[in-house]
Amino acid sequence: MNAFKFSSLLALGVAVSLAATGCSHKPPPITHIGNNGLAGSSSNDNLNNGGALNNSPGTGAGQPGGGDLPNFDPDQMQQDRTTFAADTVYFDYDSSAIKSSEQSKLTAIASALQSDASAKLLIEGNCDERGTEEYNRSLGERRALAAREALANQGVDSSRIATRSYGEDKPADPGHTQSAWEKNRRDEFVLLHAK
């Protein structure tokens, strides 16, 4: 009986120590998103209004497309989704690089914004369903920021452009085929005016 008690206690001790230590993997690092100097804004507001995901080179003030963050709320403005509906920019799988075949669409959008100084723009980044929700949200934001940078490089003041990522949440085509996925990897452009 003593040997049975000893082995039971030993097994219990091993189980408790394994449960206490668990797996030795580290959780993924958390990217903290500051308010970049915007009074009264939350971190989430920065992402939804064109803020950078981090302060890495190329996304901050003074960098192409980084410039000043927008000081307007797209949800409080009149939204026109038809003007630039034909100018939806499509992306390759797992990419935020703007293809040369899509450049003319951005040129048309930049021209329209330059001819109407009161207009503002919301860029909505979208992904297909493949990948995790978090990854797709991040990829959608990178796609929107890439278009924002391209427009800024064409002379549009980046403070007039807000970005938002929907990740995989708003598919243009609900199918689960290559054709559907190609339609879902996109940036949509919403023309904004004061109400």
Helix content: 25-40%
| H/E topology pattern | HHEEHEHEHE
General form: elongated
CATH topology-level fold name? 60s Ribosomal Protein L30, Chain: A
Biggest beta-sheet profile: 5 strands, mixed
Which homologous superfamily in CATH is the superfamily? Answer: OmpA-like domain
End-to-end distance: 84 Å
Contiguous helical run count: 5
Number of strands: 5
Mean pLDDT metric: 79
Structural class: alpha+beta
Low-pLDDT sequence parts: 23-66
- Strand fraction equals 5-15%
Radius of gyration over C-alpha positions, nearest whole angstrom: 23 Å
What is the number of domains? 1
Please name the CATH architecture: 2-Layer Sandwich
CATH top level is Alpha Beta
Structure write-up:
The chain is an alpha+beta fold. It has a single domain, classed as OmpA-like domain (60s Ribosomal Protein L30, Chain: A, 2-Layer Sandwich), CATH 3.30.1330.60. Helix content is 34%, strand content 14%. It has five helices and five strands; from the N terminus they run ααββαβαβαβ. The protein has helices at residues 2-21, 43-48, 103-115, 133-153, 178-184, and strands spanning 78-80, 89-90, 120-126, 161-167, 186-193. Strands 1, 2, 3, 4 and 5 form a five-stranded mixed β-sheet that branches. Helix 3 packs across helix 4. It is elongated. It starts with a helix and ends with a strand. 32% of the residues are buried.
